[in-house]
């Protein structure tokens, strides 16, 4: 049975790896590692992972920093069903995949690529900014499987300019997403995905996160001529407590398409104003 490995990255999201029986896999900081974890406290050869003849996966510690299960260091551990381990300071999730789950992952990735190709045409058909914002929200929710999503426009002073008001959580005066994460995304001008927020001291005390029980959030900037004109925001309050590297790459592609559409829409608006005068 294949093994699905998710590794927490410093960037805030999870890197995904799918491993198959029949090989010994190396986990570590070395560039040649099958599962690369680029962290200074991870050994170059931190652990090995393999399945025996009975298809039982086993992790073996080959490091100085250690591998930990439920707070206790382990030298060798069978991986059963779904387990979260810490390799040094890095959290890693191990999950068995049956044939149906593996097929579902493949189909999801194929579907996402098709979605990306269709988005440009779909957004071109939006006749107003409101229609574009709503279409973007629906596409994010369907593709990421997240509970809440929004396209939020940003003005030249980096203020949140317009959120969709079709749902109560998006209203300007009662926005219940994480403005802290949105501000960080804008200030750092990069995609930001945060998982297990309730266990991160720097974020867990934020009022919106506490009040709305936000477990994971993803924010990706939308740029035009190196200037941020908006962000794509998504979060979960009950379900999955992380976003993956695949999620981030998809939303970044999504943001590039939206950037072009918003630019064209702005040009069309200016031309319309000029014609009316």
From TrEMBL:
Gene3D superfamilies associated with the record: 2.60.200.20, 3.30.450.40
SMART domains: FHA, GAF
InterPro entries: FHA_dom (IPR000253), GAF (IPR003018), GAF-like_dom_sf (IPR029016), SMAD_FHA_dom_sf (IPR008984)
Domain FHA: 25-74
SUPFAM superfamilies: GAF domain-like, SMAD/FHA domain
Record protein name field: FHA domain-containing protein
Organism: Aliiglaciecola litoralis
């Amino acid at each position: 049975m294949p093994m699905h490995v998710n590794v927490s990255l410093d960037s805030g999201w999870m890197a995904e790896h799918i491993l198959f029986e029949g090989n010994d896999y190396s986990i570590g900081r070395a560039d040649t590692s099958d599962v690369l974890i680029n962290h200074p406290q991870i050994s170059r050869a931190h652990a090995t992972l393999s399945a025996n003849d009975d298809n039982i996966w086993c992790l073996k510690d080959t490091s100085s920093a250690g591998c930990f299960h439920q707070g206790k260091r382990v030298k060798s551990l069978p991986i059963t069903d779904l387990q979260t381990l810490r390799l040094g300071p890095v959290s890693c999730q191990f999950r068995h995949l049956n044939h149906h789950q593996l097929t579902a992952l493949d189909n999801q990735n194929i579907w996402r690529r098709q979605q990306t190709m269709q988005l440009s045409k779909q957004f071109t058909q939006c006749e107003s900014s409101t229609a574009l914002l709503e279409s973007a929200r629906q596409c994010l929710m369907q593709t990421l499987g997240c509970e809440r999503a929004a396209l939020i426009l940003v003005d030249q002073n980096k203020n949140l300019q317009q959120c969709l008001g079709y749902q109560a959580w998006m209203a300007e005066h009662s926005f219940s997403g994480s403005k802290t994460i949105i501000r960080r995304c804008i200030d750092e001008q990069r995609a930001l995905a945060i998982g297990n927020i309730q266990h991160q001291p720097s974020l867990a005390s934020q009022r919106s996160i506490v009040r709305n029980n936000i477990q994971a959030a993803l924010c990706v900037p939308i740029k035009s001529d190196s200037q941020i004109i908006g962000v794509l925001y998504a979060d979960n309050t009950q379900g999955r407590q992380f976003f993956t590297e695949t999620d981030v790459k998809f939303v970044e592609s999504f943001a590039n398409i939206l950037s072009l559409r918003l630019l064209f829409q702005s040009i069309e608006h200016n031309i319309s104003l000029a014609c009316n005068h």
